[in-house]
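Shipment paperwork, digital attachment
Item: protein structure file
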Amino acid sequence: MTSTRHSRSPRPERTGARTVTRRHDPTRDARRAARREELLSGAIAVIRRDGPLASMDAIAAEAGVTKPIVYRHFGDRDGLTQAVAAQFSGQLFDELRTALGAEAEPEAVLRATIDAYLAFIERDPQIYRFLVQQPPTGGADNLTLAGFVRQVGQEVSVVVGERLRQAGADSGAAEPWAFGLVGMVHLAGDWWLERRSMPRSRLVDYLTALVWNGMGASALAQEGDES
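Attachment content:
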């Protein structure tokens, strides 16, 4: 008996009382992606205006839509936070890679990298605060601040490791140094945004001196030796 083969059609998906067949529609997908970008731009505008407590109601109003439409594109507030973090982390990584990859003396590279991070959060302090104040979701793809800082640390550790190997030194220090540096600059930047007690250039000088010269060259260490 000869069997007849039939090409497979998309499997129908049952939704409630109706059966819906999902088909890939590039035009619809493109429209949805463009709409999502519009909503994300509107959300960023509201966050810049209202700060970290920007509400989903305000974001929907800015876009001229209802909240369910915002939720349809982002899932929930965590989803929106992930989208904002992804956009800004990409921009910051580009700037850090430029600073880290510069053909310059190591101290100059260090200074430029610290300044790139501080300049970035200075340009968009409300976005930074929005990301800082979001509780971590615990997901593997979490891009809120804790996950974001870890990504920056990993990025810096790769470059530090390459520099150490080029100098013929032990590259085992790359990760602890990189994560220590990123944690220090992150917390110092957080403090600086709140206090604004000095210009950014002076903070960059202080942090660069601390890292480059080490605590042994600091006035605090010298006082300890004299006492």
